[in-house]
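Objective 1b of the project was to move from sequence-level analysis to a structural picture of ligand recognition. The entry below was assembled by the postdoctoral researcher (A.K.) and checked by the PI before modelling. It contains the amino acid sequence of the target and the SMILES of the bound compound, flavin-adenine dinucleotide.
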Amino acid sequence: MTQNYDPLIDAGPGNGLSHVPSYWAATAGELPPDDGAAPFQIETEVAIIGGGYTGLSCAYHLAHEHGVKPVVLEANRAGWGCSGRNGGFARMALGRLSAEEMIGAWGIETAKRAFEIMRASLVNVRALIADGKIACDASEAGHLKIAHRASRATALRREARVLQQAFDYPAQFIDAADLHAHHIGGTQSHGALRIPDAVALHPLKLAGGVLRMARAAGATVHTASPVIKWRQHGAEHVLTTPHGTVRAKSVVIVTNGYTPQFLHPALRATLLPVLSHIIVTRPLTPDEIKAANFQTRHVLTDTRKLLYYWRRLPDDRILFGGRGLIADRPGRNHQQRDFLLSELKIKYPGLERVTVDYDWHGWVCLTRDFLPHIHHALDDSSVHYALGYQGSGVSLSLYAGQLLAHNVAGDPPANALPAVNSPLARYPLHSLIRIPQRLMYLRYKHLDRSD
Ligand SMILES: Cc1cc2nc3c(=O)[nH]c(=O)nc-3n(C[C@H](O)[C@H](O)[C@H](O)COP(=O)(O)OP(=O)(O)OC[C@H]3O[C@@H](n4cnc5c(N)ncnc54)[C@H](O)[C@@H]3O)c2cc1C
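Corresponding predicted holo structure:
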């Protein structure tokens, strides 16, 4: 079956598909076992749809801390969606808002709480890795957000000041000379905001580790088990998979950018799946590393609205990612690979001879207010969801899984954030959403080129 799934068009993400042929799949080794396809009939207190970080983390925390033994239903394999194919940047992010924008939107006290959630999500990633002894090549990398034009440096300098003064956080502004001397060269390195907290890791090994922890705690994780139909039978939910039915008292939806349209009315017209594309180069030679002055092991993003994200991998390859095509068209993705390689070479002319060994793409999930949402269906509090990480969900999705477990167990956490712990808003004219998406990309391209 094809890997070219389009959540706005197709009925579901497949059944038992292998992981995409990414650098991560090639280097993950054997993943821990799962419970195979869901059998003919299952009854459970909690069914979780989606076996990525959010679903596996929710399953782990439900079993480990709340005494609930949930059943995870994953269409393909554990970590098959974004969770096994992302850039491996676990960093502090909550939607798309900067510190200054959060303060402007919510006031200082709520913004501080949001920042604490971001910090807690990274603490949680570190704790999961330590508790589960997950060998996922994790390193304390830090994050540099690099000004891609000289005019963007002022905003980064201001952001560093806001983080220091409002949140008492040791962010730092690095000017262009310092950046070139001690971190990285290139034609688009005009200063940077340094966030000391960020972990670089192997995303698929991390997904495998959380799968192992969830099962060891008592959760069951069925793969090759897409939910293809959902009926309500009194207070019971009846989920149909290709092999049988799962009857559950509560259902958790954690399908993020891979959510098929039919799944549940609570999500209808609320999500915009957007493709993100990654290339991984062949290992750089020592001369190429010197030419680009690519000393840094920080995870890197830039100040574009259509941002690029990149990092030097442990074996000296460069992972470089950016937006993908609007729709996932077989045969057209090589254009995106070539485009990203040319953008990498514009940044670092010393990499002129570099070639690409791997490229792949996946669906990230945008919401109307550019924020993740952890909530339940308005007319049915037994249907929970957490999704919409806006492409930055490695740390937040794992943390959201933990918060969701509290909600499902009837013990919601005290530090709820109103903007996040609220229902999803619907997009108007959702069936035509790719028209405004195209216009948004054109506008962002223009803004990214201007001062
Ligand atoms: C190319 C790319 C690069 C990224 N890089 C980064 C990064 O460096 N840092 C960062 O913070 N974030 C990054 N992200 C985002 C991050 O990976 C996600 O936010 C996070 O993994 C979301 O996890 P999840 O469990 O919510 O969803 P997913 O991991 O996407 O899992 C959803 C799962 O639901 C399953 N599913 C869907 N429908 C059904 C159904 N009907 N029945 C059963 N199962 C179903 C799918 O098969 C899928 O496995 C990236 C994403 C992509 C695509």
